[in-house]
Design brief:
mainly alpha
Length: 144
């Protein structure tokens, strides 16, 4: 089932990306807004997906390298969401921004000798907050 969902998301992203690349300069404001909303949805879905992968790391077995890789994916997604936030309402934008920045600060404040287990445990509140904010933003923007 997960593969089906992931395949569907990748196909949707490819279609949206192709249509964005083929847009002409004569797009109406409505078409531009729709395109911005679609890009935002794609970016939010990817953020949610990578945040779920970060959240799913098993504290008992995850290494610091696995944590860093999952964290880096979330941060990369967050940059894309920030670039497309013009379609977000102010309250949604603030919630997602705050949650993403809180996760970044918490990660950066981890002591260098923190184990993967301890790091994941310590980051769970921030990971959950980002998950909640991203879910609310995708729901509010009717992202599928």
């Amino acid at each position: 089932m997960k593969r089906f969902v992931a395949s569907g998301l990748l196909c949707a992203a490819a279609v949206l990306g192709a249509s964005a690349c083929s847009s002409d300069d004569n797009a109406t404001p409505q078409e531009a807004a729709s395109s911005a909303s679609a890009a935002l949805c794609t970016n939010l879905v990817q953020l949610k997906s990578d945040n779920a992968a970060l959240k799913a790391l098993n504290p008992a077995t995850a290494t610091k390298d696995q944590l860093k890789s999952a964290y880096d994916a979330v941060q990369s997604d967050w940059k894309k969401v920030k670039e497309s936030t013009s379609a977000l309402k102010s309250a949604e934008k603030e919630a997602v921004t705050s949650a993403a920045e809180d996760l970044k600060k918490a990660y950066e404040n981890l002591p260098g000798d923190t184990t993967g287990k301890d790091a994941i445990t310590q980051l769970q509140p921030q990971i959950q907050a980002l998950d909640t904010a991203a879910n609310q933003a995708t729901t509010a923007n009717n992202c599928r």
